[in-house]
Amino acid sequence: MNVVTLSYAHRMTPVATDDFVKITPRHLRQADEMCRRRLALELDNQRGNPPGNARFEVSNRISADARLAHTELAPPEARAFVLPTELLAEQQRVYAAAVAGYLTLFGSTSARAVDTSFETPLPELEVRLVGDIGVALETDDGVEVRVLRVGDRGHARSLLDDIDLRFITLRAAPWSHGRPLRLVVAELLNLDHATFDIDVDERAPAAYEWVAERVAFIRSIADSDAPRAGHDCLGCRFVNGCRAHG
Ligand code: SF4
Asked: Angle, nearest 10°, between helix axes 162-176 and 200-221?
């Protein structure tokens, strides 16, 4: 049984979270357009068959290695970035270029990785906010989250939207402890980056209210008897047994 201690909104209460509904940024952003069956099964914590994550293999690896590179409050240790030889040769070249980008952008900044959980429970809503928010760090100036993108198009500022900002604000609330949060989104191949300075305590209540409304709506439309074949089928864990593909 997962038991966590909460610090958001003055709730320092250990709660069991196993039965809480899993809510991801994708649900918050796209539930309206999602297949209702897929949505219902995801909310019901059904696992299904996991899709591949090849598209994110390099950026996930960079983020994992960046956390290892910041074990002390110091500039990153370059030796923590080990070429992932299990990836394709092309991916390895992209990885090397992305590491060079990371060290160019952040190589002189002291920071120490914060061990954050992969999810944040909101007990009154009986949901868990689930999803990686980026590399969480303590710095000399406060706390920082680095969202590392590899090969994404668009200006860095456009790589995060209001939903990301609300999600990250609520996920960061339990460990930022009132300190200012600097959010940096960086595209590591072209070095484009943007910075958002967030007062978590000030923004968290509004973010919470928005999520609460959104969760109520998402629950109202989820329907395990209503498959809707389309774009959502790509990456769906529940193709097996789906009557839309019978
Ligand atoms: S396979 Fe397609 S139609 Fe069936 S649940 Fe998944 S997304 Fe919906």
From this structure: 120
